[in-house]
Amino acid sequence: MTQKRIYFGRFISTPRPDELLIRTGAVLVDRRDGRGVIEKVNWSVNGPNDAVSKLGVEAPVITTKETGFFFPGFIDTHIHAPQYPNVGIFGKSTLLDWLTTYTFPLESSLGNPKSPMYHDSSSPPDPLARAKAVYNRVISKTLSHGTTTASYYATIHVETTNLLAELAFKIGQRAYIGRVCMDRPETCPDYYRDESTEQTIANTKASIEFCKDLDPTGERLAHIITPRFAPSCLPETLSQLGTLAKKDDLRIQTHISENLNEIKLVKEMYPEHESYAGVYDHHGLLTPRTILAHAVHLSKEEMALVKARNAKISHCPASNSALGSGFCPVRELLDVGIDVGLGTDVSGGYSPSILDAVRNACIVSRHVGYLAGGNSRCNLSVADGLWLATMGGAKVVGMEGRLGGFEEGMLWDVQEIVLGDVDEFGDVNETGVDIFGWEDWENRVAKWVWNGDDRNVRRVWVGGRLVHERK
Amino acid sequence: MTQKRIYFGRFISTPRPDELLIRTGAVLVDRRDGRGVIEKVNWSVNGPNDAVSKLGVEAPVITTKETGFFFPGFIDTHIHAPQYPNVGIFGKSTLLDWLTTYTFPLESSLGNPKSPMYHDSSSPPDPLARAKAVYNRVISKTLSHGTTTASYYATIHVETTNLLAELAFKIGQRAYIGRVCMDRPETCPDYYRDESTEQTIANTKASIEFCKDLDPTGERLAHIITPRFAPSCLPETLSQLGTLAKKDDLRIQTHISENLNEIKLVKEMYPEHESYAGVYDHHGLLTPRTILAHAVHLSKEEMALVKARNAKISHCPASNSALGSGFCPVRELLDVGIDVGLGTDVSGGYSPSILDAVRNACIVSRHVGYLAGGNSRCNLSVADGLWLATMGGAKVVGMEGRLGGFEEGMLWDVQEIVLGDVDEFGDVNETGVDIFGWEDWENRVAKWVWNGDDRNVRRVWVGGRLVHERK
């Protein structure tokens, strides 16, 4: 019985795009099997005691503050854990020079003592210690911003990748962990590359096994097959990764059509294929379990192909803006019927916060609308953005119906949000969000989206377990 | 002697665009006449004691943390104080419907008990109490984000405008206070409009006098003539405001070319003038003391005219993105030789933070570059953005040489920044910025710009007076 909890207060969620559902009530969560499933909900209770009596269970009651609400945990569908120390460091680079200037040196330093990042360093290289500090940090940081599920890229190193899996599992974030596959000499530096298709596959299998040992159910943690992107892999590697994913029914993640020069490069490297999406399709990598990051410049034919394969898209607006990649037409992707979620794309994206991704998604959609001659249909509303961050993300990571809402049978992956109340003298508890008192709840949510940060995230649960609490 | 202070530690500033100047040293500030002028600087001292001996003055020494630095206070060249409660509340609106839906009701509620904002309210209207809470809040909020100087729009109400002046002066933010002039019946609602040119001018004069009484020097506080924008004023009003500004050598602020429909409206309302900038020029409002907010869509001819008159531009990137107004070509404006600063444009802009404006200026410049076919010259660097926020802003508000740097003779309007150091376990004092230790100071500043917030602002001084300290 002590493994049950009742949550009482205000619950806000986005069951459909552009729909903000605001309810007061109580939710009963069962943590007995470690899954944290919502067993019962009741939207007509008046208080904690009433909740206990109406749900018919004697369990501890956890209530939100009057100024706060429960909201589904955010799902980051695309984040590079080892790049976290580089957030904000990208100068004026664009994708391809950004990779060689900033990214490969940092990623390699988490597994390779000969990484160029150690050249100027006075202390002896200790890649695994660095990885530990970085991964501990990125997991607690994203949790503190309300990210309950993350689809991570690690590095090419098995040990480092497994460390990320271990830490995420221990700290309690729901995670998909990808060992990065890159073995094509023309595009990958000598200091940061798998040596051959055989090595790529063997190393990937080692990390798959490690993740399976940690969580045999695969619900809280699983490996995700991760060819970095078409240009960085040998064609044979792409094929074998496709086969491996099929055999074990694994998720796949990669990048697509982020940048115009990248698309040109793919055309040059894969002249036999009709399109970038076609390359992945040919190698068995375009599946309902595939997360394609970016997809800024897909042709109509590629969109149709992605839709036909039921592959998913991770929209990473902050990254696309920071690296000058272009404007992703999210409304068009949704209209085609493609599932879209949000990604921070740390550190192409400069922020570890999915709330920031919601903001940037809203902003970029207004740019798309402006460029389409003032077409406001392109605009994403606050509720659209929050839907992408929760329900959309759940579809993208293949957890539809289990994550993103407060319905019976769903998992308790939830963040508790608090806002700041301004008093008559203009004083307030410091957060980014100031509520004057006359705003309705729809507008309070808008204020949270546009000025909120980790200070508004009071508590975070994953699978019913409290994994973050703000001191 | 106790009116002198020595500041010791790391000083970072941007003397020229794209140049980050990082120095260690000491600065002596004289507060005797209440101005807080930098009397002496020394960039070759080794510690607090050495600072005292090399500067030759026995004065208290204030030092930065090892993980921090002094940085010039930010200058917000365009912010609507009464709109602060609406940050984040704009839905899918664009400029003209945003004004009538969100903005006029809120602004009027700070002076008019019959404002539509009170229609649904159960408590009796108390406009001045509301104004007091809002203005206290916006001043302390912007100070907490490092804004030491702000050019404010208030409302049309004299009493409310004067209250803003009084509070800014008392709390200690350097401020230009504009009573908003709007008296054209076609575009201004009955509940929020000056009745005639005579009333507009009389009310403006009342507020000018009030500000002069508060600060006869005009250095810490001054009135700024504020015709809302060309469509909201009678032509006769524009002319008389131009005359008034000239007579008293006052600053002027208004809006220009923010939105395509607005530009069309100006063309319809002022068919006799060649351009939007031409309207202001004709009425004597395009002067070296004029701040033009937005300027997203200026023609080449208008840019040349603005340059010829030496009028200034306040770039408000967050607002332009949020309201889908377009992409301001900042590099082009700078290349023409126009002085540009940054504005939050609260609440068209959703954030009270100029650091956020720096980020958005960098992002929008990348959009401009992308749309110009990948022209990286358009890109603003982090140092460019910080320059706009400090030195650029100083030019825009007519305080060049007095604000924006650490040279002798300048005023001590300064923010002390602290960053978070990640330890070997990945733990850190919570701010938005995580420093792992291997980053050089240029990259640390980049990390601050991209992920910093008010938590990184430890102390803020205006004219040598400590006006904000983070608990």
TrEMBL record, chains A, B:
Keywords: Hydrolase, Metal-binding, Zinc. The keyword tRNA-binding does not apply. Pathway: Purine metabolism; guanine degradation; xanthine from guanine: step 1/1. It comes from the Eukaryota. One of its GO terms (biological process) is guanine metabolic process. Pfam families: Amidohydro_1. Residues 71-467 form the Amidohydrolase-related domain. It is an enzyme of class 3 (hydrolase). Belongs to the metallo-dependent hydrolases superfamily. ATZ/TRZ family. Catalyzes the hydrolytic deamination of guanine, producing xanthine and ammonia. This is Probable guanine deaminase. It comes from Cladophialophora yegresii CBS 114405.
